[in-house]
Structure to design on (1014 residues):
């Protein structure tokens, strides 16, 4: 190429000896993970979550099925904590600790599935609205605004009641009332990214709408969605507990909400059986805390990087 | 780097005298040395232009005058305003100097206006802050200031978004003049403006500075902007001044290869030497965390000599009222042949300065 | 060099004919006439500089050339065939006409490596065999040597000049015939400016690439362009070779722009126009420049002054033997009968 031979005052060749060795693959991701695990919120949150998930997974091993069957237990009724029953017993004589451990499974599963549904619905709507604009966006955002205006809890209760008792209805009810936040967030981010020059460049290079979304918009949207999902799981678990507490879940299922429901129903409050009332609430608190801490840590890691991208 | 006091001609006492100013961020080996020993003098009624590219330290330099840098910045040296060192003043005195003595027009000033307050409120604010005048008198002053910058007084009631870019810049200038300073520092006052509006604003600044005998320090990466307004031009590279002198002379006959390259980058229309021959500068801006031995420009210099990578660099006289930090202004190096440094060896020869 | 614009030259690689682009404006009642009847033609291996201030429509015109913006009327013609806006036609168009934007840092997705950024175009068009070689070749052509050094880098690790070279490499990877560059060097340091401009000239010399460079900087036209078109409020007001327009300008706007350059003080007095460019939603009647025109102000007694208020100067054709200026005062009155017709385009 003739430009190689050009000497004189200027070389069009740009040498880059000082750039050194190229960065290893995934160096950025590794760096972010390290940061996550050096933040107190990150560490704490992860510890809590690991403990919670372990409890849920190992529950069948820790708590024999017999311990939950009211016909097969023989503990004292509504007894305060002792060595054999660290958290006391319920009115049927079951160990409250066993109940709470078992409840982890239901709460976690409902929370995770409901969140997954919320995120998928919300992200899709947000992406479509933000990317296509025009009447599509207007229509979708109007629908979103209507749903936001509806009161969440009554709507969830009505839905669950209509869909029948059971965990599936709770999951659907939660998803229907929570997708709006994600949708608006994703739409805002889609609009922001869509305005960036590199999207225009992609179009100039010949990208179709779908290609632009897949290559540029979605990857920029995913970090935010990750953060909100983590925080949303906490919300979902809380909502699930509320709905099961109100008796809308599967009556055969043991979940924290149902434990509280039974507790109040069986007069634990008047009997002063604090060991029956407090543990489920504490359990909910701990799980929500775990997810919230992780979510906050993720947010901190993601945000400064997004700021630097400006 | 302390050289001889920059020549500015004999005249009234200096308004601003900067001696061995150094600014660095962070500590230790990895500290960023943004400004590495700068000296100059500005007198009343004089306009000094500071030219340089991004990373040259020019913005950091002028922000340090009024102590506007974040706490993470370490500033040493002396900045004497009417003989008093600003860097060692107590805060009360600094606040008194800010705006009433020396005011600043910031980079991106057009977006520095508060969008929810009217122009009147924003111009009046520094006035009532610094002087004991009533609201009516302050507003009347604001109106006359707007006239001085070429805007009708009716604009007092507008909000920033109702004004064009050029008009907002005029408002910023009016604000800078509000308390009658005798020194104005303007950091890229015309970036993001159209060339015609830019020319209008520069003409305005020139007229104002002349009519009120204000000292002006203007920063720009665009030499043509500085050529309009400034009597003297200082070119910065890698945190130090590499050339300073009367604007017309520096532009006609630069005495440092970097100034020459910067001037060449913006061709003169009609000059056959630049017709279909754009002049750039190969290589990359220097790493601000390293302290090179010898001249920081050596890796990119077209007339470099072996001595350039070892000899200590300072500002030497290079003609009447001119200084340059190029070794070639010294008689012993004037005729030495340039060396073509092969590509691999153009790495900056550095040693980490233990003192920092 | 006094060769006039090639009028009997082979077919131009890119043309626009009577192009109009308007945008609906939310604030004003009438639409913004960003590009208001423009003719332009770019020959093979030619570099045209399109010079104007903000709001003149030059960026919109650049985007219309690449097909990112649909015109309200008029045509964009590539290699002799008018551009249609069906998806397939647009994709084909983008293989030959590529865009280089102003801010390279923003134009490069910060999460992608240089390899991915340059490979993006070919991947979008399904050109995946020998992709690695294609990328390396493009980087080399753009002056980033050795290309292997740069493949794994991220944009933030590169200087502004290098980033812009990556953008250009990304365009080159599609083997285009035309580069449309919108302010390619305005956000770069002075030192990188020359490098990127030099690259554009080299690409013309080695690859035969034609270029339309949009800028506010007349010096850039002097540096690299063959012809220059000066734009004001959606119209081209002066067109000709660089020597003709920059050394012997005829339109008052061009003269004013040249007079504010520092080097011009010897040859012309400083002409500072009053006020700012009006909004494209409110284009003045008659000659759109007349409210700010120093020539109009000076020639109030001249009978032609009424034309400035009432008649739009003719739209300049894309090609002509000599330089053209859209000004009523540029053409002399030839015959009394002609006094009523708005001549302006053809000089004697």
């Amino acid at each position: 190429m003739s430009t190689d031979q050009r000497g004189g005052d200027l070389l069009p060749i740009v040498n880059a000896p000082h750039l050194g060795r190229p960065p290893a693959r995934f160096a950025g991701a590794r760096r972010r993970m390290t940061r996550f695990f050096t933040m107190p919120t990150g560490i704490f949150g992860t510890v809590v979550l690991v403990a919670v998930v372990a409890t849920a997974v190992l529950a069948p091993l820790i708590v024999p099925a017999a311990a939950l069957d009211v016909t097969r237990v023989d503990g004292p009724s509504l007894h305060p904590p002792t060595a054999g029953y660290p958290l006391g017993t319920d009115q049927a004589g079951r160990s409250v600790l066993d109940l709470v451990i078992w409840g982890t499974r239901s709460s976690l599963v409902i929370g995770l599935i409901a969140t997954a549904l919320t995120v998928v619905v919300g992200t899709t709507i947000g992406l479509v609205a933000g990317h296509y604009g025009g009447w599509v966006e207007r229509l979708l955002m109007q629908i979103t605004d209507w749903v936001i205006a509806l009161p969440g809890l009554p709507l969830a209760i009505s839905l669950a009641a209509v869909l029948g008792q059971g965990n599936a209805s709770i999951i659907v009810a939660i998803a229907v009332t929570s997708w709006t936040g994600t949708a608006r967030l994703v739409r805002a981010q889609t609009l922001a990214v869509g305005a960036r020059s590199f999207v225009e460049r992609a179009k100039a290079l010949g990208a179709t709408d779908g290609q632009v979304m897949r290559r540029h918009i979605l990857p920029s949207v995913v970090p935010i969605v990750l953060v909100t999902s983590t925080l949303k799981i906490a919300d979902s678990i809380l909502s699930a507990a509320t709905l099961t507490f109100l008796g809308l879940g599967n009556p055969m299922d043991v979940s924290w909400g149902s434990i509280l429901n039974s507790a109040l129903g069986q007069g634990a409050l008047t009997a002063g059986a604090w060991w029956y009332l407090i543990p489920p609430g504490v359990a909910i608190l701990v799980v929500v805390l775990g997810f919230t801490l992780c979510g906050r840590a993720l947010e901190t890691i993601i945000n400064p990087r997004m700021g630097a991208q400006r | 780097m302390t050289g001889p006091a920059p020549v500015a001609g004999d005249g009234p006492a200096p308004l601003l005298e900067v001696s061995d100013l150094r600014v660095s961020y962070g500590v230790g080996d990895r500290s960023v040395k943004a400004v590495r020993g700068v000296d100059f003098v500005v007198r009343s009624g004089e306009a000094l232009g500071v030219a340089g590219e991004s990373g040259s330290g020019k913005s950091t330099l002028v922000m340090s005058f009024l102590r506007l840098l974040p706490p993470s910045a370490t500033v040493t040296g002396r900045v004497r305003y009417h003989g008093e060192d600003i860097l060692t003043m107590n805060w009360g005195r600094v606040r008194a100097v800010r705006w009433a003595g020396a005011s600043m027009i910031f980079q991106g000033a057009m977006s520095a206006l508060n969008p929810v307050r009217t122009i009147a409120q924003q111009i009046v604010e520094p006035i009532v802050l610094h002087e004991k005048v009533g609201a009516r008198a302050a507003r009347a002053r604001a109106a006359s200031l707007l006239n001085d910058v070429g805007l009708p007084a009716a604009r007092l009631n507008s909000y920033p978004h109702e004004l064009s870019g050029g008009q907002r810049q005029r408002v910023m200038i009016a604000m800078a003049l509000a308390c009658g300073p005798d020194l104005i520092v303007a950091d890229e006052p015309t970036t993001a403006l159209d060339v015609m509006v830019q020319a209008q604003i520069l003409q305005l600044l020139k007229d104002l500075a002349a009519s009120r005998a204000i000292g002006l320090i203007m920063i720009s990466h665009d030499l043509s902007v500085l050529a309009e307004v400034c009597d003297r031009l200082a070119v910065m590279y890698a945190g130090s001044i590499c050339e300073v002198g009367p604007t017309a002379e520096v532009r006609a006959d630069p005495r440092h290869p970097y100034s020459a390259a910067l001037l060449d980058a913006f061709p003169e229309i009609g000059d056959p030497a630049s017709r279909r021959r754009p002049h750039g500068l190969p290589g990359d801006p220097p790493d601000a965390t390293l302290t090179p031995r010898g001249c920081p420009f050596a890796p990119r210099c077209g007339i470099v000599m072996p001595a350039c990578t070892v000899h200590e660099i300072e500002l030497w006289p290079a003609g009447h009222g001119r200084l340059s930090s190029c070794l070639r202004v010294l008689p012993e190096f004037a005729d030495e042949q340039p060396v073509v440094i092969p590509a691999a060896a153009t790495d900056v020869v550095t040693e980490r300065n233990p003192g920092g | 060099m006094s060769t006039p614009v090639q009028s009997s030259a082979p077919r131009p690689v890119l043309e626009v004919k009577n192009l109009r682009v308007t945008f609906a404006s939310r604030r004003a009642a009438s639409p913004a006439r960003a590009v208001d009847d423009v003719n332009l033609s770019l020959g093979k291996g030619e570099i045209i500089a399109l010079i104007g201030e903000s709001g003149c429509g030059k960026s919109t015109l650049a985007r219309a050339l690449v097909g990112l913006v649909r015109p309200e009327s008029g045509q964009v013609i590539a290699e002799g065939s008018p551009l249609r806006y069906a998806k397939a036609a647009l994709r084909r168009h983008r293989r030959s006409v590529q865009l280089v934007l102003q801010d390279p840092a923003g134009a490069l997705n910060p999460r992608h490596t240089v390899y991915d950024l340059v490979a993006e175009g070919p991947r979008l068009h399904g050109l995946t065999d020998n992709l690695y070689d294609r990328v390396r070749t493009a980087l080399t052509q753009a002056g980033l040597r050795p290309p292997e050094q740069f493949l794994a880098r991220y944009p933030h690790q590169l200087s502004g000049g290098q980033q812009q070279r990556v953008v250009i490499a990304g365009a080159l990877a599609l083997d285009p015939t035309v580069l449309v560059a919108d302010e390619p060097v305005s956000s770069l340091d002075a030192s990188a400016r020359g490098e990127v401009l030099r690259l554009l000239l080299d690409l013309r010399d080695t690859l035969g690439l034609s270029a339309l460079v949009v800028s506010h900087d007349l010096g850039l036209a002097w540096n690299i362009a063959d012809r220059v078109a000066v734009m004001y409020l959606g119209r081209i007001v002066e067109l000709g070779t660089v020597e003709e327009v920059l050394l012997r300008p005829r339109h008052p706007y061009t003269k004013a722009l040249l007079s504010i350059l520092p080097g011009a003080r010897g040859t012309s007095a400083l002409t500072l126009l009053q006020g700012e460019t009006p909004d494209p939603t409110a284009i003045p009647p008659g000659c759109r420049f007349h409210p700010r025109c120093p020539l109009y102000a000076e020639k109030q007694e001249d009978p032609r002054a009424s034309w400035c208020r009432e008649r739009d100067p003719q739209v300049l054709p894309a090609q002509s033997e000599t330089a053209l200026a859209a000004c009523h005062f540029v053409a002399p009155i030839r015959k009394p009968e002609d006094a009523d017709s708005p001549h302006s385009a053809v000089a004697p």
About this structure: Chain C touches chain A through 49 residues (CB under 8 Å). Residues 1-7, 332-348 of chain C have pLDDT under 50 and may be disordered. The longest strand of chain C covers residues 32-42.
